[in-house]
Amino acid sequence: MNSLIPLMVIVPILCALFLNLLHKKDRTIKIIAIILALILPALPILANYGLHYFGGYVPLIENPTLGTDLPSLITGTALNTFHPAITYSFQSAQKIFVFILGLVGLLAVFTSLFETRRPSGVYGYMMFMGIAAITAVLLTDDIFNLYVFFEIAALATVGIVLVSNIKGNYETALKYMILGGIAAPMLLLGVALLLGVTGNVNITDIIYSLKNGLVNPQSPVLLMACGLIVFGWLYGSGLPPFHTIKSAVYSKALPSGAALVQAFSVFTFIALGVIILRIFSYLPFSQWVILGVSLLAMILGITMAILQTDLRRMIGFLAVGELGYIGIGLGLGTVSGITAGLFQAVNEAVITAFLFIGFGTVLYQTGISDTRKLGGMMVRNPKVALLVLLAGFAMAGVPPLNAFQSKLMLIQASINAGLPELGVIMILLSIVTFMTFMKAFHAVFLRPKPADLEIKNENIPKATIIAMLVFLVVCIVFGLFPQVVTSYLQPLATSLGGVV
Amino acid sequence: MNLYDLIVKKIKDIQGTDDESPITNISTSSMLTAEITLISSILVALIMLRLVSKILMIVAVLVVLFAFLVAMPLMPRFKKEQNDSLAAMMFYVILALAIVIALFYWGNLNV
User: Fold this and answer.
1) Directed axis angle between helix A220-237 and helix A143-163, to 10°?
2) How far is Cα A177 from Cα A172, in angstroms, rounded to an integer?
């Protein structure tokens, strides 16, 4: 059933196009969006592992009948094994990543449809287009194809912010595009340099060329390409110096949009991080750069989060800080470190979406996200307050929730790798994350209600509560049974840990 | 003037005269927490320099500790730099690009 592999990208694109065409037909939009959003997490579960060659152009080695008429100049060299088609690779790690992306997408779409009075076809278009792009980024083995979908995801992110009717959203979207105008061409230049040196855009073929002496791995052009791709990775993931604009982007989107956009950042981080490790693993320096940038993201993200008075901005900075944990795992380069980092990525995508949607209920009811003007929401919604509290516990790594397991694995991996300092910093920053969350929770839910605080919407939609409950179940299941996730991530971690 | 007063003064400087909201205990304690977190995280991270040279690590920790003590409070300055101004963001993006390229190009060739 490898035909399901391209469908993981095609279905959300088709859904996006349909929703845009049906703009203003509210009921139809709701039905189509829900049905197709339900398919998103189902497709990776149903699909078999394997490769998909677009156009059916398999490598010559897999099609001996075609090779019989060709000269040995082609069949007797590396050309015989090279991939002529855009290739999508669907393995166990991709299965769990695409499933989690689909789940976050489903719940974000579900929440947005019931929180807005009139569902917007354009907003739905942006959400589904972003999901399609990030799915392609996770699946593709072609670095130019990755760049194309990377750009589509960036545009979808800008679109989600533009469609959200929040003060200052246009300005933030414009700034994000301007900064993207610097960073994305640098990524493309890095891809072009790789193509120029290796004559290939297929990642597996590029690695083959590097390992078998077809090109000089120490070529200065390749070093430059690595630097440029790392820079594109910083932009796509929202790592420093892009952490300020990325957190601003999260804060200027609707809660459902922010939940989805942060998942885009997490999976872009993983996809490009894994590619950097795969191609440039022979440069130990690349690992140190990943470690350094991740450490900086953790420190800057979490210290900036505690200073914020805006709820959405605070979660935005926390999300950037949590990305650092993933990077520490990848940068350690050991099998256990990479497994823990990938597990943390899965957990972060779920928990941050949970927090955005949870605190989004306060925004839905009051229209205010400034903690100085909020209070007393516990009396109004004790059940929602409990769910938000649990989401905060999950992010800080309180047992038995999921991030406890991944953070514990990361600390153990850093100690085993001979870098216990990283473990100390991760513990310290987890404590500060917990404190940051409790500060916001106290301000919103526990403090007495300010006299001038108006409640605009009394009832929170049931869809939002259901979405939060689903996130909570995922957090508990992954926390109690981490092997459910790590067993899917282990093969990728082993292959990366073996080469680093 | 002690550290607490310095932080309150810096917060007032950042907020400017337009913002009439008072400096609360929460904002001051948040700033203090961020300050302590930043300093302790960087100092602990510097200990990793022991992998390069133990003497370098000791010198780096002492120099950075001294610099922090002289420049305290740091966090208000950090917050001021990490604002939403496009000019500041562009400056740091270009600076980061230069650092990344320089590190990869010369760092790998000379290691």
Assistant:
1) 30
2) 9
Burial class of residue A7 in the structure, from the number of CB atoms within 10 Å of its CB (0-12 exposed, 13-18 middle, 19+ buried) = middle
Measured on CA atoms in the order A284, A290, A293, A294, is the torsion positive or negative?
negative
Partner residues linked to A202 by β-bridges = A142
Those residues whose C-beta lies under 8 Å from the C-beta of residue A106, and which sit 6 or more positions away, are A37, A38, A40, A41
Q: At what angle do helices A284-307 and A420-441 cross, to 10 degrees?
A: 20
A5 near B CB under 8 A: no
Using one digit for the tens of pLDDT, what is the confidence trace for A190-234?
999 999 999 999 999 999 999 888 888 888 889 899 999 999 999
- DSSP type of residue A379: H
Residue A372: what pLDDT? Answer: 87
The answer to whether B104 contacts A419, with C-beta atoms less than 8 Å apart, is: no
- Does position B8 have pLDDT exceeding 70, yes or no? no
Taking the Cβ of residue A432 and every Cβ of chain B, the question of whether any pair is shorter than 8 Å is answered with yes
pLDDT band at A27 (very low <50, low <70, confident <90, very high): confident
pLDDT reading at A170 higher than 80: yes
- A350, A406 in Cβ contact below 8 A? no
Mean pLDDT to the nearest integer, A408-432: 94
Residues of B with CB under 8 A from a CB of A: 21, 24, 26-27, 30-31, 33-34, 37-38, 40-42, 44-45, 47-48, 51, 75, 78-79, 82-84, 86, 89-90, 92-97, 100-101, 103-105, 107-109, 111
The answer to whether residue A446 neighbours chain B at the CB level (below 8 Å) is no
Count how many domains chain B has. Answer: 1
> What are the Cα distances from residue A122, in Å, to A202, A257, A265, A297, B32?
34, 12, 21, 33, 44
User: Which run of H or E residues covers position A89?
Assistant: strand A87-90
Cross-chain Cβ contact B105/A178 below 8 Å = no
B46-92, pLDDT tens digit by residue?
999 998 889 999 999 999 999 998 888 888 888 888 888 888 899 99
Per-residue pLDDT at A499 exceeds 70: no
A94 — pLDDT class (breaks 50, 70, 90): very high
Closest C-alpha to A330, from A263, A414, A260 = A414
Q: What is the ipTM of this complex?
A: 0.86
Interchain contact A272–B (C-beta under 8 A): no
Domain span including residue B15: 3-109
- At residue A247 the predicted structure's pLDDT band, cuts being 50, 70 and 90, is very high
